[in-house]
Design a protein that fits this description.
The complex is a heterodimer of chains A (287) and B (193). In chain A, a hairpin with a 4-residue loop joins strand 8 and strand 9. Chain A is 27% helix and 17% strand. Chain A starts with 12 loop residues before the first helix and ends with a helix. Chain A has a 7-stranded mixed β-sheet with strand order 1-9-8-5-4-2-3. Chain A has a 3-stranded antiparallel β-sheet with strand order 7-6-10, with no helix packed on it. With 193 residues, chain B is an alpha/beta fold. Chain B has one domain: 3-Layer(aba) Sandwich (Rossmann fold). The radius of gyration of chain B is 16 Å and the shape is globular. The chains are: A alpha/beta (287), B alpha/beta (193). Chains A and B meet through helix 1, strand 1 and helix 4 of A and helix 2 of B. Chain B: It comes from Rubrimonas cliftonensis.
């Protein structure tokens, strides 16, 4: 199968023009959710149809694409989307963050700092940060237009009243350029500081038909209170394979007797550290 | 119908439009940065860069306003043949193309609504001065997309300053010259340098 059996990057040209116009408006109004006419894609909603459409609209034949799912390059969703574009756009693919020009991601920002010239495309399930506080789209539109975000602070306050700390651990709301409150997609709040990046960040929500964006070096502030400042948290452990203490960790159950270990969620970062000779506790036990 | 109307489109539309869009997107994401867009040969007086933006972004769903000297029979024919975009007045357009003298003043273009600020026009200012760096006539740009200040020679600093004041409403602009393009989104703060 070659790229010539499909139009370049799968979508037809009129659809790509529509998505491209939306991306430009989204970049011009950072954090604002621009509606777009999301198409049916050859994968179910929830598998990254929004991210795939945005990626299809920005890809050029010269690009090198990386796809990650929860930080991993080797899970089903990541592998199938990478193959999808290798087949329909003929682009080169990679698992190395530093080699990629376009990175489509589900729920993580790579540990390796992104650089100018890279594009990070997020898959977004629910783009509206106010949706669970106010179910009506007409009302949330109005709240964004009036900059009426008091309800979001009430929600964070209720977290503190009930749990003693802000318990929101992922999809932690941010304010962009002092104007729009934005859902950074379900990335762990550990990743929130990385939203200020030299790369272009595009967010695509297929089912909800929204695209939003962060231009490079954009001001992105996680909402908090003076006496309860925002803290990017992670498991208090080191990676069992590479020993990293500065990366976001997944907890993995290893047997049915309570055995467990922590691993880097970013597989490329972990493999890179292991190749450089770093070893974690689990590796030393095995040796 | 003349040859000029029927020729001058992209030779390989999916690929060339993808490259032109990436240049346009980089320009919009990094205000004041200059990028090359190639592949279009529109009739005079449009520049190749303005032509490439029209081919990449306009179609039946994105009406175009041709202002002043850009509104010729040949340009209308070229736009109709290559994009199918309706030619409309400035109050109904998604894109407007022409020289700054013909585009100004900036009132009269759609600037979006408070709930849908994306429903606003994008201007393509043709024949702009894209020479780089600070100096006489350069405006200082700061805001989203810029780590440090950038400089761009704007035809009217006060008009674009007033446009930025209306954020999140407002117009976004591309500046085209030859095969080069730069952009100024409404989010950028503009000062006379």
């Amino acid at each position: 199968m070659t790229a010539t059996d499909y139009n370049f990057a799968y979508l037809d040209e009129q659809t790509k023009r529509m998505i491209r116009r939306t991306i430009l408006k989204a970049l011009a109004i950072p954090g604002y959710q621009a509606p777009f006419a999301s198409r049916e894609m050859p994968m179910p909603y929830g598998w990254g149809t929004g991210g795939v459409q945005v990626t299809a609209a920005v890809l050029t034949p010269e690009d090198r694409l990386k796809v990650i799912d929860q930080g991993a390059d080797d899970t089903t969703n990541a592998v199938s989307i990478r193959r999808f574009f290798a087949r329909t756009a003929g682009v080169a693919t990679t698992e190395a963050t530093t080699e990629a020009t376009v990175i489509q991601t589900r729920h993580r920002i790579p540990e390796t700092p992104l650089t100018e010239g890279q594009i990070l495309v997020y898959q977004v399930p629910i783009p509206e940060p106010l949706r669970f506080l106010e179910p009506r789209e007409t009302e949330t539109r109005k709240m964004h237009s009036l900059e009426e975000y008091g309800l979001m602070h009430v929600k964070l306050y209720e977290d503190i009243a009930r749990h003693g700390a802000i318990a929101t651990a992922y999809a932690y709301p941010v304010k962009v350029e002092g104007r729009y409150v934005m859902d950074p997609s379900p990335i762990p709040k550990f990743d929130n500081p990385k939203l200020c990046s030299p790369a272009i960040q595009l967010f695509g929500a297929g089912r909800e038909q929204r695209i939003y964006a962060l231009p490079p070096h954009c001001s992105v502030v996680s909402l908090d209170f003076e006496d309860h400042p925002f803290e990017p948290s992670k498991a208090d452990a080191a990676c069992g394979l590479c020993g990293a203490t500065d990366s976001y960790l997944d907890e993995v159950i290893t047997d049915d007797e309570g055995g467990r270990m922590f691993l880097c969620s970013d597989t490329d970062y972990c493999a890179g550290r292991q190749a450089a000779g770093h070893r974690g506790a689990a590796q030393e036990d095995a040796a | 119908m003349t040859d000029a109307m029927l020729t001058g489109g992209f030779a390989d539309p999916p690929i060339e439009a993808a490259r032109a869009f990436r240049a346009a997107m980089e320009a919009m994401a990094r205000p004041g940065s200059v990028h090359r867009v190639a592949g279009a040969r529109p009739p005079a007086p449009l520049s190749p860069a303005a032509g490439a933006l029209i081919l990449t972004l306009c179609d039946a769903d994105a009406p175009l306003c041709l202002v002043g000297a850009a509104d010729t029979g040949e340009v209308r024919g070229w736009v109709a043949f290559h994009t199918g975009a309706p030619i409309v007045g400035r109050g109904a357009c998604a894109f407007a193309v022409g020289s700054w003298e013909d585009l100004a003043p900036l009132d009269g273009y759609p600037v979006g609504t408070p709930e849908y600020p994306d429903r606003s026009a994008t201007l393509i200012v043709d024949g702009a001065d894209l020479s780089q760096g600070a100096g006489a006539g350069a405006a200082r740009l700061s805001g989203p997309g810029l780590k440090d200040a950038a400089f761009l020679r704007l035809p009217d600093v006060a008009a674009f300053g007033a446009n930025a004041e209306r954020f999140p409403l407002g117009l976004d602009a591309f500046f085209a010259s030859g095969d080069l393009v730069a952009a100024l989104p409404r989010s950028t703060c503009v000062e006379a340098a």
